[in-house]
Amino acid sequence: MPEETDVLDLGERHWLQILADHDGGTAEPMVLGPAGDRRRARPGDGAAEALIATLAGVDGAVSRGRFTLRSWTKRTAVGERPVGVDQTNESVIVGDAAVVKWSRRLHPGPHPAPRRIAVLRARGFAGMPQPWGQLTWRAPDGCETLVASVDEYLPGAADGWTWAVDAFTAAARARGREPAVSAATDVGHLVAELHAALADTASTASAADARRWRADARAAVEAACAVGDSAGAALLRDRRHDVETAVDGLGELAGTPVIEGHGDLHVGQILRSAGGFHVTDFDGNPVLPAEQRMAPIPAAADVAGMVQSLAHVAVVAARHADLDPAAVAAVDSAVRAAFLGAYTSRLAGLGRAALYVPEALYPFRVQQVLREILYAAQYLPRWMYVPDAALPALLAERTPA
Ligand code: ADP
Ligand code: MG
Question: Counting ligands in written order, which one lies closest to the CA of residue 271?
């Protein structure tokens, strides 16, 4: 496929440059330097401020060539600094008021975030950082892909791999489960409200959907069994039949409800700040191909992502040498029970109990652990201790004592 370039002006000194290729391509914010040099803009160069100012001049949505700008505020902000954590994309905090997230790598195919955010906004969902605006680009394949998004900045926000590990550790040390349990309760309510707000997107899983979920999980079993050098993978080879039986449950979900859910829900997507808990990052699961990132999912898939990530928080917390493993395990089960209890009761209170199919929880949790094994093997070997510890615990939940 031929390469294509495109440019969006962002005022006098800034512009956005697209270089599309067969694999999606890149989008780079650019700046004209004082010596007339043209280079990629870094936080502090004003490109994020320029994007916010451009969006503030837009009423609703406008198209400029292949770009679409959507704006929900007239606010502007100045003063840029980098977010400065591990990130897939580049986020810039502007004036302690907004966060601009540049999608540096353009993913081929359609992008799930614009529609999910539109639905949540239309429903008045308050559990996410309020969106200020969005910039998308129509790729040569005709699909709209997300180039940048601007959200309200939550001062002092910590993501769940920080706040939840701290809360588990404190609870295990104090042998008191508050406030970890109360945090999990709040997050359960938040996820129920998210799913209720996305209920307008509900449809019914087809037999082909169910077959695909089962086949994908079976393929993950196969691939994870082939990982050497992991206690989890070794256990998987031993218990392969049990694991396959568990994930085969996904093949029975035809006829159950699906929604355009979060798609990549885990504790790291839950920000905690003085204003409480907010869910972020509607980009979908980065390891899935575009059409699957867009596809509706059972609500239980999101719930499983969150529940299993809480179990993984316990594994991370248990590395603190002074913690009694039994105390950590007690916090872990209390926290997961609190999350699930709060989720199901709030969902029912919102009249949406039917969205959640409890039988789907366990197979999706197993699939999540398989994905962690594969992710660690491919990208992050130092993470392998987490699925290595999580898989035996998960299998023990289903094994009669
Ligand atoms: P990525 O796709 O790079 O993971 P995220 O949207 O998950 O991007 O954000 C990465 C990090 O940036 C978060 O973990 C959080 O620390 C910070 N962050 C994101 N959005 C906000 C926000 N609205 N307010 C404050 N911090 C934020
Ligand atoms: Mg993220």
Answer: 1
Q: Which domain holds residue 109?
A: 3-152
Per-residue pLDDT at 1? 47
Q: Domain boundary residue among 152, 169, 191? A: 152
Ligand 1, atom 14: nearest CA belongs to which residue?
A: 159
Lowest mean pLDDT among 3-7, 42-46, 62-66: 3-7
Residue 401 forms part of a structural domain: no
Tokens describing residue 394: 């998960």
**Beta bridge mates, 61:** 70
pLDDT score of 86: 58
Contact 146, 80 (CB under 8 A): no
Token pair in block for residue 247: 């994930």
Give the ligand 1 atom nearest the CA of 88. Answer: 3
In a domain, 119, yes or no: yes
Backbone angles phi, psi at 204, to 5 degrees: -115, 135
Q: What pLDDT does 141 receive?
A: 83
Max Cα-Cα span within the chain: 73
Mean model confidence pLDDT for the chain: 93
pLDDT digits (tens, 9 = 90+) for 22-56: 777 889 999 999 899 999 999 999 999 999 999 99
Residue 83 Cα: closest atom of ligand 1: 12
Would you state the structure tokens that stand for residue 111, as one six-digit string? 């992008």
The protein residue whose alpha carbon is closest to atom 12 in ligand 1 is 83
366 band by pLDDT with thresholds 50, 70 and 90: very high
Ligand 1 neighbourhood includes 81 CB (under 6 angstroms): no
Q: Are residues 93 and 180 in the same domain?
A: no
91 ligand 1 Cβ < 6 A: yes
Q: How far is CA 329 from CA 46, 166, 324, in A?
A: 48, 15, 9
Q: Which residue's CA is minimally distant from atom 2 of ligand 1? A: 88
CB contact burial 59-85 (16+ within 10 A = b; e otherwise): eeeeeeebbbbbbbeebbbeebeebee
Stated pTM of the model: 0.93
Pocket probe for ligand 1: among 271, 282, 293, the residue whose CB has the most ligand atoms within 8 Å is 271
From 136, 152, 168, give the residue that closes a domain: 152
Protein residue with its CA nearest to atom 17 in ligand 1: 83
Residue with tokens 């699957």, as numbered in its chain: 292
Closest approach atom of ligand 1 to CA 90: 3
Burial class of residue 252 (count of CB atoms within 10 Å of its CB; 0-12, 13-18, 19+): middle
| Confidence bin at 291 (pLDDT 50/70/90) | confident
